[in-house]
Write a structure and sequence with these properties.
By secondary structure, the chain is α/β, with parallel strands linked by helices. It has one domain: Rossmann fold (3-Layer(aba) Sandwich). It contains twelve helices and eight strands.
Amino acid sequence: MNSMRILILPALVAGFILFLPLVTQAHPHILDVARGIEISPVDLLGDLRRAQVIFMGEFHDHVGHHRAQLAVIDALDNDDERPLAIGLEMFRKDSQAVLDRWTANELPFLQFLSVYNDNWSMWQVYREIFLYARNEGVKMLGLNIPRSLSSKVARSGFQSLPAEERQMLGDVQCQVSPFYSDFIRQAMGGFGGHGDQYLYFCEAQLLWDTMMARNLVEFLRENQDYRVVVLAGSGHAWKFGIPTQMLEEEKISYRVILPEVFTRVDRTNVTKEITDYLWLDEGEDGWIFAN
């Protein structure tokens, strides 16, 4: 009996050790939505390299979503084929000079933090992405418009803006797909119908998406060799958001990666009309590439 135990125990230990790498390699779980299968990070990155713009969605306060974003940024930044830039919903275009000084490592941290807090919040959640861009010299692009502008449209509609502003921004009309309409109602807590509240919120979302798309296209027209990873809330990064408005301006190759958020966009309801890839939520260890 003792000799049998001596033989069995090493076999069990060896089997356990062999199994550990398989568990580690199981992360992350990335769904190719069109094909309905999980793919490896190598296959994902191979396809992303065929596109000029990669939109990565997020829930702003979800640390794991930002870890996934940084994993993709780091992998694509190692390419010699194209220089990389990071497009940001989190920064207004009028703060671009500050972002340029930050990524050139010419701006003291506290001075930058003051401008960051004027644009956005949750520094600790975004910290690693901004530090990576500074340390690696990766260009960052402010894509957003003043929040006061989108807030005014959400409250009172696009027609409430002065004529000069409307002319500068272009004609914004709430002409959206059923998918987008359902998203707006969900964002409004399931209310809104087709009344003014729904219309104004819809116009504000479209204004947001349109102007971020225009700012992105403007950069790419002047810097055609760049690849851009755009970081934005999933309601802007999905195909009906910024990508649709971008294609209205310019035919640019792109991919969309959304993080799985149960009851919003998850493995049970995702479609290829929404995103190209769904990064599945398999816990804290599931948001990075295995070494």
